[in-house]
Structure formats: structure tokens, C-alpha cells
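P.,

For your records, the input lines for the assembly:
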Amino acid sequence: MKGGFVKNLPKVYGLYTGGFAVFILIMAIAEQAGVSAKNIGVMFVAFTVLIYAFIGYLSRTVQVDAYYVAGRQVPTVFNGMATAADWMSGASFVALAGGVYFGGYTYMAFLVGWTGGYVLVATLLAPYLRKFGCYTVPDFIGTRYGGNLVRACSVFVLFIASFTYVTAQINATGTIASRALGIPFELGVWVGLISILICSMLGGMRAVTWTQVAQYIVLIIAYLIPVFWISSKVGGGVFPHLMLGDEVARLGELEQQFGLVKNSAADMKAAGVPGGLKYISGPHSGVPEGGMAVWKYLSLAICMMVGTASLPHILMRYFTTPSVKAARKSVAWSLFFIFLLYSSAPMLATLSKLALMDPNLPTGIIGKSISEVQSIAWVQNWSAVKQVFIADFNGDGILQLNEWFMRGDVVVLATPEVAGLPFVISGLVFAGGMAAAMSTADGLVLAISNALSHDIYYKIVNPKADTAKRLIVARVLLVLIGAAGAYIASFRLTSILGSVAWAFDFAMSGLFFPLVLGVWWKRATRQGAIAGIMAGILSGWAYLLWVYPKFSMAIWGVVNEPWLGIDHLRFGMIGAPVCLVTMVVVSLMTKEPDAATQAMVDATRVPTGKAVLGKQH
Amino acid sequence: MSNKDAYWNKTKNHMIVTLVLWAFFSLVVFMFGSELNTMSFLGYPLAYYMTAQGSLLAFVIMLFWTANKQEKIDEEHGFSEREDD
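C-alpha cells returned:
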């Protein structure tokens, strides 16, 4: 039956995709028949979440290897989809296009960083970790270097990086659930958490894998349909990715015409611009001049790439493939599925920017009179919830480019409405955002609780625990971690928790070099790894406290200028080199690893032969 | 040199080639952003195109290529896995 299930996967997910298409059609008909927009949103989110929960229930398991690594039988392409869903968070889904919208070229360093990192995953790590046969990322570090201390150090880094990330995801689930279901945010967070736990608790990695595949299908449909539809509607052409050259050039002209003005912080404060809202102040396709601008672009791309290759919830997805070969191919498929969304985000940003900026289009608002703009229905709706804002700085009653403020999420959430698409599309976008946030949160919560249950509880605290006990502990921890994340998210401490970019910087500071050198440098020793991990994470952390204005104000009462342009988004540029140097120096100062360890590394490097860690361990 | 060492040398070289290509598309291209933007591709300014789509596509193609190449190296040295393993 098991083999049968894997063979039938294309059929199962084919039917599922067909079923989802039928559901969208039914909703479209319901909208025509007069069902309210709010109810359509509720049905979209409720229907998809119930399906995920059902998949989660069907995938329940009592076996250790199924719980930790989905029984290592996930086919290449499906693992690619699951990784893509694991990867693309609620923030990617709702905020990426908004980031490009406001940041233009400079922001797109994130696009390069969040895709280029997979080349490092595929060449340096994934196939070797798969061969090793570990259950978790700290499991590799703990076994390769030997000893409980190094294992505990890597769990520490994993915990900091993944927990930073997971609160942002639960926050996103809560935001979307509250908007779609019309409930308060605090309640939305807990509804989101329960949906996340139902998908992962009974079946661990196996359940998360099959729900993530389902979530990928929903989120990619929900992203691409609006992009293509809007493009043909506003005259961008049927295939926007290849056809928006003129639109990009036109945006350049409009930027010249309206002028890119920087508002002073004092002006914005005086006008009462709500926090988190942004305005366009940088060129869309133009490259900022100067060496510093180039360095800022490159350093951000490096941090995101190296961080990608160190994030445990991504690496552990490649532990689930049937072979080493499949792990390599699976990374390629993951990136292909990610590419489908990431290459569409700049197109969506271009289209939606043009729709608002071009005075020749009926949707254009810049350069019109403010009273006229304020009477547009969607502007009123989004102003009411403080997602858009108009400040007439020069008092001429005409909307200038620098007087229009908007939250980044609005680009994805409101563009269908702005372009005049039916509401069923907005409902679909809600379902997509929910799928994106849930799938990433699931992967992260599982990565943390697996590391705690396998590496801390089973490997260090109680090595004699039997299977039943291990799986109970794993599930209890899963619920506790999820609840802690939701509890923190419910306070809306996002300003303190900072950006998801921090998760990448933490991970690269403490994990990248210990992982890579573990495979590629036999001379790396336990002492070197321990020193490297701790020096990397602590120096990165200390630099973050020093450079992030909110922290440095609280601790020292001053705002520090970033050193060499390395700001809080890039603190991995400090942590990772410190980790590398410390690890190499300490390794060379200590005794070479013993023959058994060297043989272990040799075994890791070839695809055939026995795994270092057995099937059940 | 044993077969295993020969295999590992080839794998290492292949890794270096892949990382050079990776560095070209992720870093080198964007060191010359302003210069590249004076050229155009599909009607887009070139540096804009690369960061919005070109480099991303290059990474995808590179990963399929690199996996296939590595499989060939596996086969050459008899380290290819059987499908039923």
C-alpha cells in the first residue's frame, strides 16, 4: 500500500488541483448569484484549511522515521513543491511584490539572495546530509563532531534562527485569518496556530510534506492567476514576464516627470503617517550610483544566500528523498517552483505601480486632485484600516508621488480590486496567503520541536526512551513551541522581533561553516566547531544589538552608524567570518579528528554504501 | 590514487566550477549594475532584467545541469545508486 501511495501521487494531486479549480468556479458563480465578498473570503480560507487538516489526519504515524523524515520516500518533484511551500512564507507571498514596488532595483537583492542560496544548498550540503542519514541538522553536527556540547550549541543556533522566523509566520497567519474571517487579530493568531498544529502534530514530517504539496498548489495558483489576468487587463500583454519592457521604461519616464522626492521624518510625523506605510522614493529599474550602493546590494544578497543554505527547516526537507541523487535533483525542482513565484513578483509590482502612476490609465491616481482620489471606493476601504494614507505636504490639493503612502501588503491584496477583477480573485489571494504562511510555520515549528525532541531529549537527556515515548515528547514540544510562538505573536511585538532577514543572519552566523566544513574539511574538529558556532552567533548577536537603533538606544542610549554599511539586515556579514576564522584556527590548534571520524566523512562523500546513521536511530 | 580519491577530486572540481558560475550570476553581474543597465534585453534594462528574472533563471538551469553532471561523475566511478535502494 505504501509504494502504491507514492505511485499514485500524481493522480491524487491531479484530482486535488482539479477539485480546487471546481471550487474556484463555484465561488465565482456564487459571487454572481449575490453571495457577499466577506462570505466568499471565509469559504476560501475555511475550505482550504479543512483540506490541509484532512491530509494531516490521513498522514498520522507511529513510526520514528516517518515522523522525522517522512520515511525517506518523498519523490523528487513532490519534495520540490513541498520545499517551495516551506520556503515561501506569508511574507514572500504578500510582501515581496510590495517590497519591489517601493524599493525597486535595490530591494531585488532579496530576489537574487533567496534563490541563489539554493546553489549553495545543492553543491555544498543537501546530497551529503542526505547520505549521512541524519534526522535533524544538529543530528549531523552532533554526530560528525561528536559529543553533546556541540550538538547542544547547534540546537541553540537553530532555536534562535527558527524562532525569530516562526513568530513572524504565525503573525502572518493571524493577520490573514483575521481579515478573511472577520475576527480580531488576537483570535486569528490562535485560529492560525490550531490549523498549523493539526497539519503537523499527528504525522510529523510525513504530514507536513503532504500538506505542503497541497499548499504549494493553492499558493501558486493564487499568485499567478491575478498576475496574468491583471496584465492582460491593463494592456501588459498575455505573458507579462517577457512583455513588460515598455512598462518598465514608462515607469522611468513617470519617475522623471513626478520627481522622486525624499520626505523628511519630521514632515511625515507632523502629517501623522501611520507606522509601516511607505512611499516611492527610489527608482524602479535604475541602479543607484556609487560603490556603497553596489556593496549594499552585494552584501544583502550574500547574507540571504548563505543564510538560505543554513536554515534547518529547508535543509531537513532534503532528508526525506529516497536517494542522494534524488536529493540533488530535488533542490533543482525546489528552485524551479520558487522561481515561478519570485519571477512574477516584480511583474506584479510593475503592473500595479503603473496602474497607480500613469495618468493616462483610468486607474491612475498620482497627479489627480486629492478629493477625487479620496472618493475612490478601494482608497476609502483601505484608508479605513490605515493601510493607505494621503498627506498633502505642499498643500496644493494635488496628489504627488511622495504624498501617497501605502503598506507593502496592499500591492498583492488590493491590486486585483484596483484593476477591477471580481472578488473571487481576492478570496483566492487570501487562501494563497494563508497557505504560504501556514506551510512555512509548519516547517519551522517542526524543525524546532524535532531538534529539541531528538537532539536534546533523546540524544542527551534520555537515550533509553522507547519509540512511543519519543513521539509523545516530540508532539508535546510541537504544541508548546507553537503556543509560545502564537503567544508572542499575539502581542504584536514585530517592531521588537525585527525582520525575517534576522533569521538568515543568525543561521549563517552559527551554522553555515560548521555544516560546510563538516563535509568538506576533514581536519575540522569538535573544539573548532564549538568555538566557531559560539563565536559566530555571539559576535553576530552583539553586532545586531550595537547597530539596530532600537536596541542600541535601549542599552547605550545612542544610535550607532553601521560599520561599512553593514546594518541590522546584514549582521551575518560579521558573524559568519568570525565563525569561519575561529573554527579554522581552533581546529588547527587541536588534535586531528580520529580515524573513525575521518572514515565517517569519507562515507558521507560518496552516494553509495551504508548511511552513517542507521534507518532508525 | 584510489578510485574514491579520484571521484572526490572530480566532485570537488565540479563544485568549484558551479560556485564560479554562481558567483558570476549572483555577484559579478551586479558589480556592474549601472553599466549593464545601459544595455537592454527583451526591452528591459539589462541589470534590472538580471535581478528580476535573469539570474534567477540562470540558477534554476545551473542546478539541473550540475545535478546531471554529478550523476555522470557518480556513474564513471561506480558510485551510482540503484533505483531500488
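Two observations worth noting. The first strand of chain B starts at residue 40 and ends at 41. Chain B has one domain: 3-76.

Regards
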